[in-house]
Design brief:
Keywords: Metal-binding, Oxidoreductase, Zinc
Cofactor: Zn(2+)
GO molecular function: oxidoreductase activity, acting on the CH-OH group of donors, NAD or NADP as acceptor; zinc ion binding
Number of domains: 2
CATH superfamily of the largest domain: Medium-chain alcohol dehydrogenases, catalytic domain
Structural class: alpha/beta
Family: Belongs to the zinc-containing alcohol dehydrogenase family.
Protein name: L-iditol 2-dehydrogenase
Distance between the termini: 22 Å
Strand content: 25-35%
CATH class of the largest domain: Alpha Beta
Number of helices: 13
Helix content: 25-40%
């Protein structure tokens, strides 16, 4: 095995480079994986655009976090995994000891351990993630499908925090990868789903991924009124999930929900962003506001089951494949994909593909 490998390194704002780096070596409790597939992600795009992530990484650093692959070697004291195993390794693991972990909120762990470096030939999996958030992938599940576990786990956790019931009306604002996952997950949960989208092509994709009704944002259209008109007695939706991350859609989401309903402000605007809500509506409407962050080990396992059972149809989310050398160009194209009007959900980066 070579001592060096090809990997994509983030150096700063919109600065990705394919470089030759040392192959990491697994320490005690760790795994070394040969990357089978890594997926592009909205969070990675946001980090690429901004050049940093306060919690996850500091440039220059290996990049990418949605991954599945094959165990090549193990460090000392690894239990349950051996070379040749096909696995999906999540991008984080909680400590299990802090205040938030003890309160069953491991997604808010004070010492949440993150791992990056998926856009590479090999990746080292830290011991805590090996022990708490690495799962065996069945032979009939492609690596690119298994790699969808991490973003889907965030969606599963987010929807569960809204306590949906069969027959509930769920509004999802946004039809990017996360919005489409919310549509499909809400549909699987037995909900009636309304999508709020911007582009013409998103109407088609929203219906394909589970929307019963679609409202398109357009000049002169009262989006809130259009959504409420599709709900019982015009009262509003039981649940509204915001996946766009703009002040306008955060504020609209509160106007779309019924009294006693739940709003999940899932999309995260930049730090320092402010919004305005009608306090009278919030208070007398008994409206619950949530802002779900990340995932939990339990949510990861439920997401993994949705994928391996076939109920999620992971193949629908993979719209392109590429090799490592094209990753910098892929991210440059992702910056302007909303202007192209093409269906581009997730690209599977396959290190074995030669460009």
């Amino acid at each position: 095995m070579s001592k060096t490998m090809q990997a994509v390194v983030l150096h700063g704002r919109e600065d990705l480079r394919l470089e030759t780096v040392a192959v990491p070596q697994p320490g005690p409790g760790e795994l070394l994986l040969r990357v089978g597939a890594a997926l592009t992600c909205g969070t990675d795009l946001k980090v690429y655009r901004r050049g940093y992530h306060a919690k996850m990484l500091v440039p220059p650093t290996l990049f990418g976090h949605e991954i599945a692959g094959t165990v090549i070697s193990t460090g000392a004291d690894v239990a349950g995994f051996e070379p040749g195993d096909r696995v999906v390794a999540l991008n984080s693991a909680p400590c299990g000891a802090c205040l938030f972990c003890r309160r069953d909120q491991p997604n808010l762990c004070s010492d949440l351990l993150f791992n990056n470096g998926a856009y590479a030939e090999y990746i080292r999996i830290p011991a805590r993630i090996v022990a708490k958030n690495t799962l065996h992938v069945p032979n009939d599940v492609p690596f690119q499908h298994a790699a969808l576990t991490e973003p889907l786990a965030c969606v599963v956790h987010g929807l569960e925090q809204c306590n949906p019931r069969t027959g509930d009306t769920v509004v999802v604002i946004g039809a990017g990868p996360i919005g489409l996952m919310f549509l499909r997950t809400a549909q699987i949960a037995g909900c009636r789903v309304i999508a709020v989208v911007k582009r013409d092509d998103q109407i088609v994709s929203a219906k394909r991924f589970g929307a019963d009704e679609v409202v398109q944002i357009a000049e002169g259209v009262d989006t809130v009124a259009a959504v409420r008109a599709l709900t019982e007695d015009g009262e509003g939706a039981d649940i509204v999930v915001e996946c766009v991350a703009t002040p306008a859609t955060w504020e609209q989401s509160v106007e779309m929900v019924r009294k006693g309903g739940v709003v999940n402000l899932f999309g995260g605007p930049p730090s320092g962003t402010t919004v305005s809500f009608d306090t009278n509506r919030l208070h007398y409407g008994d409206i619950m506001l949530k802002a779900t962050f990340h995932h939990t080990p339990a949510a990861c396992r439920r997401a993994f089951e949705l994928i391996t059972s076939g109920r999620m149809r992971a193949e629908d989310f993979i719209t392109a494949t590429t090799g490592l050398s094209d990753v910098p160009d892929v991210f440059r194209r992702m910056l302007v994909r909303s202007a192209t009007g093409t269906l581009d959900i997730k690209t599977a980066v396959l290190p074995e593909v030669v460009q």
